[in-house]
Amino acid sequence: MKERPSFPAKLNTGKHAATPKKLSTNVAAGFGLDSSTVRARMVQKLAQQGIEDARVLEAMGRIERHRFVDSALANQAYEDTSLPIGLGQTISKPNVVARMMTLLRQAPSIKNHSLGRVMEIGTGCGYQAALLSLLAQEVYSIERLRGLYNKARENLRPMRLPNVHVIFGDGMLGYPQGAPYSAIIAAAGGESIPQAWIDQLEIGGRIVAPMQDAVGKQALLVVDKTAQGLKQMLLEPVLFVPLKSGVA
């Protein structure tokens, strides 16, 4: 029997919007992983790699990635590499995370690149949800693995992000209670975009997700939902964990 998705776990109470100025990320001046300097170096590398969105770069510089990985791997947190987070899952490379968020914000129908409600498929350790909290009005993040759901909530709780809602459930079904969404982003790749995501996306909204191409390899797929139908763009190759249904 499949377990029904739980109601969203709000990480804090308050107004449904958070701004960068109100976010507390405990950035310390100085040295070590808590230093803003080490994140600034990562942001500089991202800019050199072609990430030009100032809001995305600002978010990447504010959120402390080392707090979302195991302590044994913390010294690799600001390298451009994916890292294991348990249960066969990974935290994506900073470049890929920044690229996907940039693509979300480039949707032609999104006024001033300002995201409204965003649905994230695959919370993982919670890192991308924290980043999205700086770019979107509301973030609904769904995780199908109970162990990671608990880990993400633990990681995010000290940050007090009132606009982030973590949900335990089947991401392939989306989360209709929060729909319609202006954007959907996925951290797992399947053979096609689930119909539930398309149904829950508003007209003018955009999906960015890894999907299999014609030869069975993964590539970034961008889907725009217009009044005339769907427009799709297949972009560069990527490598994500597989998209699965159900909960565990």
**CATH architecture level-2 label of the domain at 82-237:** 3-Layer(aba) Sandwich
Helix % is: 10-25%
Strand order of the largest sheet: 1-6-5-4-7-8-9-10
H/E topology pattern? EHHEEHEHEHEEHEEE
Largest sheet: 8 strands, mixed
Strand content: 25-35%
The class by helix and strand makeup works out as: alpha/beta
Shape: globular
The number of helical runs is 6
Poorly predicted sequence stretches spanning 5 or more consecutive residues: 1-7, 12-31
Which radius of gyration do the C-alpha atoms yield?
Answer: 17 Å
The CATH superfamily of the domain at 82-237 is known as Vaccinia Virus protein VP39
Mean pLDDT: 88
Measured distance between first and last alpha carbons: 11 Å
CATH class of the domain at 82-237 reads Alpha Beta
Strand count: 10
CATH topology of the domain at 82-237: Rossmann fold
What's the helix and strand layout?
Layout: E1 9-10, H1 36-48, H2 54-62, E2 83-86, E3 89-91, H3 94-105, E4 115-121, H4 127-132, E5 136-143, H5 146-156, E6 164-168, E7 181-186, H6 195-200, E8 201-212, E9 218-226, E10 229-237
